[in-house]
Amino acid sequence: MTTISPLAFVNPGAKIGNNVRIDAFAFIDEGVVIGDDSHIRPHVSILKGSQIGKGNTIYEGAIIGAEPQDFRWKGEKSFVIIGDNNKIREHVIINRSIREGGATVIGSGSFIMAQSHIGHDSQIGNRCVLGNAVKIAGDCKVGDCSILSSNALLHEKCEVGEWCLIKGGCRVNSNVPPFCIMAHNPITYSGVNAFILRRGNFTETEIDNIAKCYRQIYESYTSVFNAVRRIEADVDKSPERDAILSFIANHNNILAAVPNTEK
């Protein structure tokens, strides 16, 4: 049974699913969609253009569907689309798209911690973790199962591949290929994300092949072009190898192509 506090405001034009709980002082705008089994806690604002799936919990003070913080937005009708079973913690802000019919998209099963900000038109994959006060600018992309630790900053139009770990406080100003760890400021490659990959049931052979690829890219003191040729020649074909090569082929640059030589 859906429960709506008498101290909440729910616009009559909102669509509320079954077994939804909306607590006191929440604000649900016109046209908002909230899926079954979701919990909207006190002082949450869910604004027009927001479409929220099933089983989500949104904590105190979060703002979903906030107007874009971008001078290019002139009032176009746009959206925030959120999948299922996410936890969105206190004072998170998610901006909707700046483009007519466009959307900022959050996948399913992610944990977005307090005071994080996700800018317009960004896409967050499934089962991601964004630490406290992570800031993601507009038109960014974070792949499935990636972790951005607290206070990480992701610059506009940058992409983080799947199964990555960005350590706390890093400033990401270019594209991060999948399966790796990035650390330090200026940010540099810091190894393969082996611990999380093992928890994701990757085999030791798969992790070893990933490591072979990144030794060529980051530790061979050659160009990315030459590293790619070596990978194609020396590393056995696999979905992980192909994902790394595809990411490089589809991006003009990748982050920290010069290896970290810090002792």
Structure description:
This protein is an alpha/beta fold. The chain has helices at residues 194-199, 204-218, 224-234, 239-249; strands at residues 3-4, 9-10, 15-16, 21-22, 27-28, 33-34, 39-40, 45-46, 50-52, 57-58, 63-66, 79-82, 87-88, 93-95, 103-106, 111-112, 117-118, 123-124, 129-130, 135-136, 141-142, 147-148, 153-154, 159-160, 165-166, 171-172, 180-183, 188-192. The strands form 3 sheets. Strands 1-4-7-10-13-16-19-22-25-27-28 form an 11-stranded mixed sheet. Helix 2 (204-218) runs antiparallel to helix 3. The longest helix is centred in the last third of the chain and has 15 residues, at 204-218. The model is unreliable at 258-263 (pLDDT under 50).
| Average pLDDT reading | 95
Q: How much helix, percentage-wise, in residues? A: 10-25%
Poorly predicted spans: 258-263
**How many DSSP helices?**
4
The proportion of strand residues reads 25-35%
Structural class of the secondary elements? Answer: alpha/beta
Sheet with the most strands, sense and barrel status: 11 strands, mixed
Using only C-alpha atoms, the radius of gyration works out to 20 Å
Distance between the termini: 60 Å
General form: elongated
Give me the side-by-side strand order of the main sheet.
1-4-7-10-13-16-19-22-25-27-28
The overall strand count is: 28
